[in-house]
């Protein structure tokens, strides 16, 4: 199952790709969500876009799920050497029409 | 210099990161563009977000440049083995307020 800290949010990480797609699809189908947010940071951003594309175009095509909004931002964190580093983030908000 | 096929479009690839940031910044400053689109495919999508974040937040902060819209999509292409593969794409549209 995909990682989630809150309802209706799917965080993209290094688990098998289809875990995340299934996580998004199930939010809409089994759990009846009206809105699901896919979140990722750094290198996982490209993967978040892949998950959104596969979920909406291959699995949820008949359900009327579309991209409502996409937000990008930066977060500052300290790396192992104690140096401040910026990492980009993305939120892809999917909505049931 | 960043790769460009059209005016006001910066395609993100494997060149040094700052080439792309400079490309975006110069479009707004030297060339007086009102709108610049950052485009990327596949693994370069994460980099496109980094370029947009660094350009707008570090270099163009005083210029009133902001993200106007972000679009994601998929393109189908044939790989070396002749198999059809989907690749995700992103367009990040920056605009001068």
Short structural description:
2 copies of one chain form a homodimer. Chain A is of the alpha+beta class and 97 residues long.
Mean pLDDT across residues of chain A? 92
Number of domains of chain A: 1
CATH architecture of chain A: 2-Layer Sandwich
Strand segment count of chain A: 4
User: For the record, what is the CATH homologous superfamily label of chain A?
Assistant: Alba-like domain
Which SSEs are present, and which pair or pack?
The structure is a homodimer of 97-residue chains.
Chain A: E1 9-11, H1 17-28, E2 35-41, H2 45-59, E3 65-78, E4 84-96
Parallel strand pairs in A: 1-2
Antiparallel strand pairs in A: 2-4, 3-4
Q: Which keywords apply here?
A:
alpha+beta, homodimer, 97 residues, elongated, disordered N terminus, 28% helix, four-stranded mixed β-sheet, Translation Initiation Factor IF3
Structure, explained:
- 2 copies of one chain form a homodimer.
- Helices cover 28% and strands 38% of the residues of chain A.
- Chain A is α+β, with helices and mostly antiparallel strands and 97 residues long.
- Chain A has a single domain, classed as Alba-like domain (Translation Initiation Factor IF3, 2-Layer Sandwich), CATH 3.30.110.20.
- A 4-stranded mixed β-sheet of chain A has the order 1-2-4-3, with helices on one face.
- In chain A, helix 1 (17-28) crosses helix 2 (45-59).
- The longest helix of chain A has 15 residues, at 45-59.
- Chain A starts with 8 loop residues before the first strand and ends with a strand.
- The model of chain A is unreliable at 1-5 (pLDDT under 50).
- The interface between A and B is medium-sized, with 21 and 21 residues.
């Amino acid at each position: 199952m995909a990682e989630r800290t809150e309802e209706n949010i799917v965080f993209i990480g290094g688990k098998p790709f289809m875990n995340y797609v299934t996580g998004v699809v199930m939010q809409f189908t089994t759990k009846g969500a009206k809105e699901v947010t896919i979140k990722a940071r750094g290198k996982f951003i490209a993967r978040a876009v892949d998950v959104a594309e596969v979920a909406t175009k291959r699995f949820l095509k008949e359900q009327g799920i579309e991209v409502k909004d996409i937000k990008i931002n930066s977060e500052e964190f300290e790396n192992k050497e104690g140096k401040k580093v910026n990492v980009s983030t993305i939120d892809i908000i999917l909505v049931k029409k």
